[in-house]
Amino acid sequence: MQRAMVNIFDRWRVSDVDASTVLGGISAKTFRRWKDGEFGRVNRDLADRMSNLLGIHKALRIIFSDPQTGYAWVTTANDALAGRSPLEIMKGGGMEDVVRIRRYLDSVRGGW
After folding, report:
1. Residues 6+ apart with CB under 8 A from 107
2. Tens of pLDDT, residues 51-91
3. What's the pLDDT tens digit per position in 1-32?
4. Residue 79 carries which DSSP code?
5. Residue 45: how many CB atoms within 10 A of its CB?
6. For labelling, which of 18, 42, 96, 101 has a CA lying 20 to 30 Å from the CA of 89?
7. Please, are residues 55 and 108 in contact by the beta-carbon 8 Å criterion?
8. Which own/partner contact pairs does 91-99 have at CB distance under 8 Å and 24+ positions apart?
9. CA 76 to CA 72: how far, in whole Å?
10. b/e burial code for range 76-89 (CB count within 10 A of at least 16 → b)
């Protein structure tokens, strides 16, 4: 899952610092180690976050026929999110911030 997170954040064009915040406050240094292929143990909270982020990625691939449009959606202001980008919301750092975006996308694609 860690390798998948590195790839997804790269596609979404999310900085290492922002990625570490979305992942629940792991250090940017730890995230950079992941990028170098050095993976360590993952606690339950981090595993749950990564699972939800994978769900977000999957929903974007279903909703948008062009993958690049889905990748850009993450950092684009959205009227349905009070003018904020999904990344801005997920950078709140709480699990509920990531889950909020996942639920929103699930509702858009008809998954809920």
Report:
1. none
2. 999 999 999 999 999 999 999 999 999 999 999 999 999 99
3. 999 999 999 999 999 999 999 999 899 999 99
4. G
5. 12
6. 42
7. no
8. 91/18, 91/21, 91/22, 93/21, 93/22, 93/24, 93/25, 95/24, 95/45, 95/48, 95/49, 95/52, 98/22, 98/49, 98/52, 98/53, 98/56, 99/52
9. 6
10. eebeeeeeebbbbb
pLDDT at 110 over 90: no
What residues are paired with 78 via a beta bridge? 84
10 Å CB burial of residue 36 (0-12, 13-18, 19+) is exposed
Please state the domain extents for the chain.
2-108
Alpha helices per DSSP H over the chain: 2-11, 16-22, 28-35, 44-63, 67-73, 86-90, 95-108
State phi, psi for 24 to the nearest 5 degrees: 95, 20
